[in-house]
UniProtKB/TrEMBL annotation:
It comes from Brassica carinata (Ethiopian mustard). This is NTF2-like domain-containing protein. Signal peptide: none annotated. Pfam families: DUF2358 (PF10184). InterPro entries: DUF2358, NTF2-like_dom_sf.
Amino acid sequence: MEILRSDYGNAYFVTGIFTSAIYSDDCIFEDPTISFRGTELYERNLKLLVPFLEDASIELINMDKSELSQGNYIRATWKLRTYLKLPWRPLISINGSTVYELDRDFKIVKHVESWSVSAVEAIRQIFTFNSFTSRS
């Protein structure tokens, strides 16, 4: 759990810097818009996204570990805030959570994000105009 906290400290969602060794190679990654398998693809997707982010931050609000009869998991709640490097500089602001399912060796086998807004509302934020002078 401390490595995962450290990854949040590195703002891994918005920097692409994460500890891939804590994930199984064929980990499943899901968010409200996409689902795929593999840490290499996840790392590549993050690296493609990062150059489009400006003044990006992710704040870890809470992280706890739980056990169910099916296995162990960690749940993190967070707040993402970033401007996109588009001419109208849209602000993306999403509260969300990620559930990390763990195997017997405590490697993450499933990484599932949920957001406080629908996928359509999140995409709609991309098309919202922000004044160039309101850099906060």
